[in-house]
Structure formats: C-alpha cells, structure tokens
Amino acid sequence: MSNEYTPDFIQRLFDKLDTLTTLVRDQTATINKLTETIAKQQEELFLQREENAKLREQLNKNSKNSSKPPSTDGFNKPQSKSLRKSSGKNQGAQKGHKGTSFSITKEPDTVINHIPKHCKGCELFGSCTSCGIKGKRYEVDIVIETKVTLHQVLAYECPKFNHGIIAGTFPDYIKSTMQYGLNLQTLAVALNTVGMVSISRTHELLSDLFCIPISTGTIHKMVAECASKLTSVIEEVKNRLIASPIVHFDETGTRVDRKTCWVHNASNSHYTYLTVEYKRGHEGITSSGVLPNFEGIAVHDCWASYWKYNHATHAVCCAHLLRELIGVIENHDEHVWAQDMLDLLLKMKEVRDKAVFMGKENLSYYYTLGFRKSYLSIIEKARKLNPIPEKIPGKRGRIGKGKIRSLIERLFDYEGAVCLFVKNFNVPFDNNQAERDVRMVKVKTKVSGCFRTKEGAQNFLTIMSYIGTAKKHGKSPLLALKKAHLGECNFIFA
Question: How far apart are CA 206 and CA 212, in angstroms?
Fold first, then answer.
C-alpha cells in the first residue's frame, strides 16, 4: 500500500489533474463560443426567414391581392377570382332578356338589286312576272374623302354708294389663306386624346387616310388650342364637384419630362376633374384644388394624405381592403381572421344591396348592431393572432408593427369610414368610379411612353376631363370636341 502513494505517484496525479482542468477550461470556452455562434446563427436564421417571407409575399403580390395597379402585372396576369357567390343560373342572357343587335341608323344611300343568274342575258327578261323581294341584306360602310372649300370675297360697284366698291368679308372662323376645317381639327384632337394615339401616329394616320401633309406641330397646336378653350368649363366642373354631396378621389403616376408626376382625380357620376401635379401627397392634393374646399363625403383608398382634410366626411374603398385581405390569406398562415373579415364585408354589402333593392333607406338596428359586434370581434381575434413584435434589446427606434398588424389597426381606427356604406346608402362600397376615370392615364402612358412637358400633360387631362363629363351627360365625344372648337362648351351641362 505504501508504494502506491509515493511522492512520484502523487505528483503524477496532480499533473493529470492540471491537465484535465486545462482541458475542461478549454472545452468550456469552446462550448461558450459555440453557444454564442449558435445564438447568432439562430438570430440570423430568424431574420433571413423574415426577409424570405417578405420577399415571397412581394413576389406573390399582384393587382388581385394588393393595391398594385393592373399595369404592374406585366404578361403574368393573375387568374381572376370572383368573390361573388354562384347564383345557380346558366351563363349568358337569361330568359326574357331583351337583346340588342346591329341596326340601321339611316335610310340606304344606294340600292343594288340582284337578279337570278338565269335571267342574265335572257331575251325574255323584263316581260316575266315579278314575285317581289325575297330577302334584304344591308352593308354599312364609310366613305373617306377630302373636302376642300374655297372661300371667295366678292366685290361690287354699288350705285347706292356713288358707284363705290363694296366687298364681302370672310367668316370669323376663316382666319388664314390655308387652314384645316372643323371636322379635321376635331378628328385630330379626338385621336390624340380619346383615341390615346401619339401625335406622331396621328400625323401618320391623317396623312395616309386623307393625303393631307399635316405636321406634328400643327396637331400639337390643335390640342393646345382646344384645351385653352375649355378653361372656363373645367373651372365650372371643379366648382360643381366641390358642391357635390359625394366625390371620389384617386391618384396615379405618369412620366412627364423624365420625371414621375402624379395625376389627381376628383369625380363622381356626373363630373370628371383631372390635374397633373409634381407631388402625390398633401401638397399635390391641395394644389389640385377640390378636396381642400370639399365638405361632402370623400371616397378614397385610405391614402394617409386624405385624412388631413378634416372638414370632409371620409369613406374608405372596401374593394382595396378586400384585395389586402386576399393577400393575407394567400401569403400567410394565420389568416383565419382575414377570411372572416372578408366574408363579413361581403355579407354587409349583400344585406345593404338587398335593402336598397327593396327601397329601404337604412338597415335595422338588429343588422347594424350585429355587424359592429362581428367587426370588433374579428379585430380582437386578429390582434391575438398577430401581436406587436417585442422590442429587441439594444435596437434603437420604434418597433415596426408589420403590414398585417398595420392593416388590423387601420381597420380598427377607421371603422366608421370602412362601414359608412352600410349606414349611408348613398355611399358606394368601392372607389371604382375614380379608378375608371383615371385608368386612361395608364393607357396613354403605355401608348405614348410619356408626356414631354407638364403643359402638354395638363392639356390632355383638361380635354379628358371635358370628354369624361360630356359622356356622363350622354353627349358624344366627337360632338363635344366640335362644340369646344366653336366655343359652345357649356352644352355638356344641358
């Protein structure tokens, strides 16, 4: 026994103990470093997953599940998904529906009779007995021709004026030796504005069709002169919109002189008013001039700048909300609340439409109370499923709510504006009126690429405001433009 615990043996034990202690210390340090590395990797993985989710959501966004305009879909158009429930009826016109067809609007200018082929060259043709007309078919065509009118001023030696020379005068609209007539001016402006054809293409079409060497500069001048004659009538349209009970507002971007400018729209079922501004938000809306002086119901897409005008009653476009809810359903797991909110909004619209059809002016207390309870219950459920993220220690700044939580809070904060269409039957469910009135700006941009000057863009919008208002009053665009050249613009209000 004594030989086992010799000093050498004990020293060796201490040496091994030191070695093990060093090893444990090194391994502990390694474990701590690995633990720290794993924590960092987990945090990076979490951030990458968040970023991937955002990028995946961004890639999946289109005009059907977000506020992106259809022009951004490109060639990859999303499949249309109707939110309407099937009525059970067959497709197409229903029984009893009065159809429309191609009809003749005037008496025939030419009548061509077609005899039997056996009668051609027959020596007895003309002596046989006619059995009447077996059938009629109409061919409708147009005649393209250039009409040149020579205006001459005649002079006479008049005995009443001591045989002095008296002469006629040219009409007021004949202002130069060579000029284009009213119909050609109207067509040129109509092609460039209503037809969305560029000035260069308008030049080519008129030159090819009528063999008239009309220049691009002349066409540009015609459009500018037409717009200048509409100043007073467009100001009247603006004033009538300000005095209207309900007006739709929207804005869209376009390229002007290599910059992005914003077309602001204010319109309803009777009037259209369009302006181009350098800014999209509060400054652009104020410069446009309708909403700052408007005290009725303003229907819009919940763009933050609109809420700064407190003197108007606000109504939110529910179609935009439906698209955002569809985006949550398609791109996120926790979407039960979004489906419930979508179904509730559609149910509210269905009940309201039935009430309108039955001639009622408002919903019963049972429906209004039930809808509000359901609305707030869904908001509460949504908040539980989408809590505000916790603040990361050491990270500066406010905590971002995220798009889903922001949508939830927006639905809560603007409940009155979202549900106003149920309380006031004059308020529409969506903002489609404004979107229709502003859509042609995108068409013009696609065709022409851009506007070279802000003045040219405003000329186009002035004419389109006039045309849009004329169409809403049942007036023909071509007739409206012809009246504009004659200085009779106010006829659109008749």
Answer: 7
